[in-house]
Each structure stands twice: as C-alpha cells, then as structure tokens.
Amino acid sequence: MAQRKKNAIPKALARVHDTARGRMKRLRVTLRELGVGHAVITNPVDVGYLTGFLGGDSVLVVGTGKPTIISDRRYEEELDAFRPIAKITMRSGTMSGAIAEVLGELHERGSLDGVALQADHLTVGAESALREACKKKVPVRSIRHASGLVADLRIAKDESEIRHIRAAARIQQDALLAALEYLRPGMTELEFTAELEYQMKTRGSSTPAFGTIVAAGANGSHPHYSPADVPIARNSTLLIDWGATHMGYRSDMTRTFGFGRWPRQMREVYGVVLEAHEAAASAIKPGVTGRELDAIARKVITDAGYGEAFAHSLGHGLGMDVHENPRLSAQSDDVLDTGHVVTIEPGIYLPGIGGVRIEDDYAVTPRGRRNLCTLPKDIEWATI
Questions:
Q1: What distances in angstroms separate CA 208 from CA 2, 54, 345, 381, one per listed residue?
Q2: 269-299 pLDDT, tens per residue?
Q3: How far is CA 169 from its chain centroid?
Q4: Where are the domains positioned within the chain?
Q5: Any idea which architecture 11-154 has in CATH?
Q6: 159-371: CATH number
Q7: For 233-252, what is the mean pLDDT?
Q8: Could you tell me the pLDDT band of residue 260, with boundaries at 50, 70 and 90?
Q9: Is residue 360 within 8 Å of 342, Cβ to Cβ?
C-alpha cells in the first residue's frame, strides 16, 4: 500500500484552502478599490466564508501578505489545519486587544496602509473598545468604516456552494417525511418540532437553519410563529417552515398541509398561493429584479382578493446565512444573476383561521433557474 507523503494535505482540505485563497484575493481587490490595505473581518460567518474555518468566535485580519486568524485556545487544534493559508494567533486577553496587537505590528512594518472595519457587523460597544485598544498602536485616521465587504462577495454562489445548499435541502426533506410518520392528532407543535429537528440532526444537519416554525390551525396566520404547547388537531391546516445546515450552508422551505379534511377557505387559499409561487418561480432568470418577481406573485394573490393578507416580501437570498442578498420585495431593485440562490415564499394569512405559505429554494442559472428542492407542492400530496 502506498504511504501518504509526510505532511501531505488531504485533497478535501486542499480544495478548501484553494477556495479560501481565491475568496481572499477577491476581497483584496475590493479593498484596493476602497483605498485601504487591510480589513478586520469580525462577522464569524464571513470568517468562515473566507477561510473555511466554521468554529466561530474568531476574527480575520486580511490584506497584503498572509492573513491572520485571531482566536483562542478552544480552537487551537482545529485551526492547525488552516496554517497553510493564514497565521494563527491565540489571544490570551480581549479580542479588541489582540486585534490591536496584530494591526500595531503591521503599522510598525509600514504595511498597514489603512484598515476597514465591518460597519454592518460591529456593535457600537465593540468598535469603541477596538478603537480604544488601537489608540497607541495605530493612527486613528487609518481606521474607517465599510459596509458589504464580504456580503457582496457572497451573493453569487459557485457550484460547490450550491451543492451544499442542495444537500441541506435533501436533509430537511428526508427529515420531514420521516417526522410526518410520527404525526398523530393531539401531538403538540413543540413535540413535532422536536421530532423534525431530531430527524434533521440524525441525517447530518449540524444545526437547524433557523428557529423551526410549526403552526397548527389558526396559529398559521402568524408568518413568524414560535411553536407552543398547542395540540395539532385533525381537519385543520399545519404550516411547517424549517431548514437544515450542511457545511455551513442553509436551506429554507415551507409546506402547508391539510391534516385530514381541508377547511373550505383554506383549500381555496392553497390554490392561490401555489399559483403565485409557480408564477414567480417561472419568471426567475438573470436580469429580473426582486421588485418584478414580488409583483408577479402579489398580482396573483391580489387578483384573488387576498392582497392585504400577503403581508411580507416574496423571498430573499440564501447561503451561509438564511437571509442574504438579493432581496425579493416590492422595494427591491436587486438584479438577479447567475449563481444567486433565492427563496420563493408567497403566503396568505387569515387571522383566526390560519395561513398558507409554500416555499422552495432556487438557483439562478444562465437560462433561468433550478429548483434545489424536490418535495411536491400539489394539494393532493399536501393532504395527510
């Protein structure tokens, strides 16, 4: 048997490193356009995107030269794998003090040339502490705000990212089908939520993509509902909005079921929402705006007499965060492009009666779109 060469890097990790180098190279281009040499990346999701390290509680200083990951000894062994692409600094004091040390060393070497902070992530308190720590090490004029530093890079997904989202969707779909086998009248929303999240976990989801929504009957009229100790009754609707996480990437789906016999109005509402979903999804392609897609779905619902009952936007971008750009809303001029992944999730909510929402995840392709979800949406399938 051939022996692995000493210090050889596994192919999977080598691919992670190559991806990280490419992403940080793109960030450096953005920094040059802003007229700064370095950035302090404090958003842990962005650190994960740029480096492949998903441990959290870490900061990345990136610019000219080798970047630095600042973390603590809880992650020391895990971070050893990332030494080929970054210097690893284990802090013993505050994070702001450790960042100031790294920036101070860069300033002493004359290579700092300005530093951008993530204005869309740092709290006022965290920025104040960082500026105070940097006061004697880095000229204040060198530090400036910047928004969208990494978020703009994350909008378009490559094929590996889309595969991760599709894998997350596969996990959540299989988990739902398994959990439905345990659904019985009288089971509470919380009990079904626990079963669904258990089924996702056993299939490889590191964490739910967001707080799972299980809304029985009239509770479905709340678009963002928290499950409670409420029994799920026969002959009513059951709205389930859930998602899984795979390799840091999230999926997001909603299905509404008739548990037994559909209430008459809710059966009608289901047909309207399904029509709105399919109309908007079929219009996805490069060049269309979020405003245009939202208008397509909203017109279907408004023409059916339920315009006031569609109280949220049509959808949003999806990736390492469950809500990313582009936004699909009546106010959004975001333009879809190849590689964007978006949700389509129209809904109708009737207080005291219930709600219907149907949601899938779509990747924008050069010629249109690809649905990353495979569960049916017809009302026959949604009757259980």
A1: 41, 15, 19, 25
A2: 999 999 999 999 999 999 999 999 999 999 9
A3: 12
A4: 11-154, 159-371
A5: 3-Layer(aba) Sandwich (3.40)
A6: 3.90.230.10
A7: 98
A8: very high
A9: no
